[in-house]
Design a protein that fits this description.
This is Ribokinase. InterPro entries: PfkB_dom, Ribo/fructo_kinase, Ribokinase, Ribokinase-like. One of its GO terms (biological process) is D-ribose metabolic process. It contains nine helices and 14 strands. 34% of the residues lie in helices and 27% in strands. The protein is globular. The protein is α/β, with parallel strands linked by helices. The chain has a ten-stranded mixed beta sheet, with helices on both faces. A four-stranded mixed beta sheet has the order 3-2-6-7.
């Protein structure tokens, strides 16, 4: 049976409601603070699990972060490969003003405590054909990609946040690349979605490219097949975590043996559910919610999709 490993980040996200974004030398009292579990690794693991996959999580857990392990356990995600380290947990301090504008300070903390030994010990439990899901929020990412490739794992990468150097990551070793339009432009120096896909068709012909375009939908490129699909027509409340939801449900559908088109449709419906609720991991829908929205808008998605060989 094909196994799934998410090797990634866990963050505690502290949201502070403020009158205005704080200025230098200013002290301001926040009338409200909320703490949520986040990190792209945790979010994508939760989405995979909600999409029906059996998920293993690897990463580094910092101090005073029991809420993170409780969340993983709540979603039936295995924490066998999670390591406790004597460092502060990764966290984000997020100011949000009355207009919805925000300012975010991220501290990677324990997420940057991954060691070569942890990588080796974890990958030893996985074999050729198993799925590795990674993001760019942990250290030693290149080492992890290279070692996973050597073992024959299928590698799905969401390279967010993007590195300073677009050539810093060994993308040629990646099997599925999940990027949004900003990340696509960063790697390709192109702005048009079709030009971005053309770039990857030339530079990474063996990699499946999944390009999300916000309210313009998404595109998938696999081999010589290219599919574009719109978003589900839903009221947007909060887009935080929508991309991670999309990634997780796409991969859960792939693990279930669905076609590329059906993987894209499932991810589209799941992210449609996610944007209609507040929060990141808290907004990730169940499989039943996702299927209900997909069935409601199936005709629209199928009639509006564009599918062609190039």
């Amino acid at each position: 049976m094909q196994k799934c490993l998410v090797f990634g980040s866990l963050n505690l996200d502290y949201f502070y409601t403020v009158d205005h974004i704080i200025a230098p030398k200013e002290t301001q009292s926040a009338p409200q603070m909320q703490c949520f579990c986040g990190g792209k690794g945790l979010n994508q693991a939760v989405a995979l699990s909600q999409g029906g996959a059996s998920v293993n999580f690897a990463g580094c857990l910092g101090q005073a972060s029991s809420l993170l392990t409780e969340t993983l356990t709540q979603y039936h995600i295995s924490t066998e490969f999670l390591r406790q380290v004597d460092q502060p947990a990764g966290h984000a301090i997020i100011q949000v003003d009355g207009n919805g504008q925000n300012a975010i300070l991220v501290y990677p903390g324990s997420n940057f405590a991954v060691t070569s030994e942890q990588i080796d010990e974890t990958l030893a439990h996985f074999q050729k054909g198993d799925l590795l899901v990674i993001q760019n929020e942990i250290n030693r990412l290149n080492e992890l990609i290279c070692k996973a490739h050597q073992r024959g794992l299928i590698i799905a990468l969401n390279p967010s946040p993007v590195p300073v150097d677009p050539k810093a990551l060994p993308l040629e070793l990646v099997d599925l690349l999940f990027i949004n339009e900003v990340e696509g432009a960063f790697f390709s120096s192109e702005n048009d979605p079709q030009a971005i896909l053309d770039y990857f068709a030339k530079t990474l012909p063996d990699t499946q490219i999944i390009l999300t375009l916000g309210d313009q939908g998404s595109c998938l490129q696999t081999g010589r097949l290219r599919i574009s699909m719109p978003c589900c027509p839903v009221e947007v409340i909060d887009t935080v975590g929508a991309g991670d939801t999309f990634t997780g449900f796409f991969l859960a559908a792939k693990l279930a043996g669905k076609s590329a088109l059906n993987c894209l449709a499932m991810a589209t419906a799941a992210s449609g559910c996610a944007v209609s609720k507040k929060g990141a991991s808290a907004s990730i829908p169940s499989l039943a919610e996702t299927m209900a929205l997909l069935n409601k808008h199936r005709d629209y998605l199928w009639n509006q999709k564009i599918e062609f060989n190039f």
